[in-house]
Specification:
With 479 residues, the protein is mainly alpha-helical. It has helices at 13-36, 38-42, 55-85, 88-105, 116-139, 141-144, 150-177, 202-220, 222-227, 242-260, 262-292, 297-325, 327-348, 364-399, 405-418, 422-438, 448-463. Helix 3 packs antiparallel against helix 15, helix 11 (262-292) runs antiparallel to helix 14 (364-399) and helix 12 (297-325) packs antiparallel against helix 13. The longest helix is centred in the C-terminal third of the chain and has 36 residues, at 364-399. The relative contact order is 0.15.
Length: 479
């Protein structure tokens, strides 16, 4: 059996914590910037000027699509370069600093049409760098974990990301976006309470918060660069391959994996499917909560905070289960729970859940029942996403040949990007089918739950025959 990247040395908690703090430190970019705050700000009406109000949203969609293509093309090649040069930590460091700088630079995006493409360009550049940096970050897992504790370490890192994201989101929510009156100053009649640093205008609240995101990332990622150093390169004197040469080597290595390590190839396909389904839980969860279960914006934010908090704790605890039962069983358990929960939420949904107090036919008792159902099933679905993602990472780390962590984790990122359209497309198709079936387009979003369930079941089916590290050997792409 060919040696894998994982060693047998005991892990020092200080090094594990330093590694996990990178996920904690970079979460503002995903939680605050790309999900809840800046992405909402950049598609607001001021950026459209007097033109089409949907223009900024369309521009965001197009730029995000182009960024996804760049990630898919660059991730495995840059990961391969990390392996060959041994400069994984150095490359992670400059990409992390660039993410911090980009986050803070969003301060300069004023709410005017002339700044739209500056904002979108910075947003997409940061997303591309973040995804590629995560390849380098994931490839360091074999440097701080061993075969006995990798599940615990991976789960701890993923859980720290959840917790860090929700803490910085709450700081920005109550410090800038919706500060309570009297916390940072008292508001005059008819005015919004001032936020941190005395910021009062609506757009400046968002812009100053971006500086906080950059500082947060810079400070909390310092420990990883003090605790972990670059290792010896996998190639003693790596030749300069160039872009074309790198892709040629990548294709040869993929072909070798397919010939000698078929189960790793199966896993990459299975994980691409179920990771797309898991992403759908967070992408469409808020939409379904508001349109199909009558949640207000404030209730969605409160639910999101609770979901991330619980998901962080559950993910850390499931890391122990990963080392006990193995990552494959954890993944299958999580996928089954989320798929069944999605189907249950669809089956138990009633039209009255979507009604708001101002709508005709609104029934407070029915609305309360819908809220309770969404809280129970929504928190269940959210809680099992993190453990599945963390176990997926630990599964792959267990089978990567020594010296190829960056390249294989790069392929992991690429395969996920290649089929990332599946859940959104199926979601759209089923919502349209639901609207046609019920005749109520506004209250058909819950049909999209079946799309999430279908993709997860497909991933479950492909994952089922995949063997774990203990059941098969792995090849060496350069062997």
């Amino acid at each position: 059996m060919t040696a894998t990247a994982l060693g047998q040395d005991k892990s020092r908690f200080s090094k594990v914590l330093s590694w996990a703090l990178w996920d904690w430190g970079t979460q503002p970019y995903y939680t605050v910037i790309t999900t809840f705050v800046f992405s909402v700000y950049i598609v607001s009406r001021p950026f459209a000027g007097g033109g089409d109000p949907n223009g900024p949203s369309v521009a965001l969609s197009v730029s995000t699509f182009l960024g996804g293509i760049a990630i898919a093309l660059l991730a495995p090649v840059i990961g391969q370069s990390d392996d060959r040069s041994g400069h994984t930590v150095r490359n992670l460091r400059w990409m992390t600093w660039a993410i911090a700088l980009i986050s803070a630079s969003l301060y300069f995006v004023a709410p005017e049409p002339a700044f739209l493409w500056l904002g979108l360009g910075l947003l997409v550049l940061g997303t591309v760098l973040g995804e590629i940096a995560s390849v380098s970050y994931n490839s360091l897992l074999d440097r701080i974990a061993n075969q006995k504790n990798i599940g615990k370490v991976s789960g701890f890192g993923w859980g720290m990301g959840y917790l860090g994201g929700i803490i910085v989101l709450l700081i920005i929510l109550f410090g800038f976006v919706q500060p309570p009156d009297g916390l940072f100053g008292t508001a005059a009649a008819g005015e919004t309470p001032p936020g941190m640093f005395g910021v009062t205008s609506t757009d400046m609240r968002i812009r100053v918060a971006m500086i906080l995101c950059g500082v947060w990332t810079l400070l909390f990622t310092i420990p990883i660069f003090l605790a972990i150093r670059d290792a010896k390169a996998s190639v003693e004197k790596p030749e300069r391959l160039g872009v074309l040469g790198s892709y040629k080597l990548l294709i040869r290595n993929i072909a070798h994996i397919w010939r000698t390590d078929r189960h790793t190839a199966y896993f990459l396909l299975a994980s691409a499917l179920f990771r797309d389904g898991l992403a759908g839980v967070f992408t469409f969860g808020a939409v379904i909560g508001s349109t199909s279960f009558g949640f207000s914006t404030t209730e969605i934010i409160i639910f999101g905070a609770a979901a991330n908090l619980i998901a962080g704790v559950v993910t850390i605890l499931f890391g122990l289960v990963d080392d006990w039962l193995g990552p494959k069983r954890v993944i299958l358990i999580c996928l089954a729970v989320i798929a069944l929960g999605s189907i249950a939420a669809f089956a138990l949904h009633q039209p009255g859940y979507a009604l708001l107090p101002e709508d005709a036919g609104y029934d407070a008792a029915v609305a309360a029942q819908g809220h309770q159902l969404f809280w129970i099933l929504g928190l269940t679905l959210s809680s099992f996403c993190g453990p599945a993602q963390a176990a997926s990472r630990s599964f792959l780390a267990r089978v990567i040949p020594k010296g190829h962590s960056g390249e294989i984790f790069g392929l992991y990122t690429t395969t996920g990007r290649v089929i990332s359209f599946v859940t959104p497309l199926l979601f759209t198709v089923l919502v349209m089918a639901g609207a046609a079936q019920t005749g109520n387009e506004a209250a058909a979003q819950h049909w999209g739950l079946l799309a999430i369930a279908a993709v997860l079941i497909a991933g479950f089916a492909v994952m089922l025959p995949v063997k774990e590290r203990s059941d098969f050997g792995v090849g060496n792409p350069e062997g």
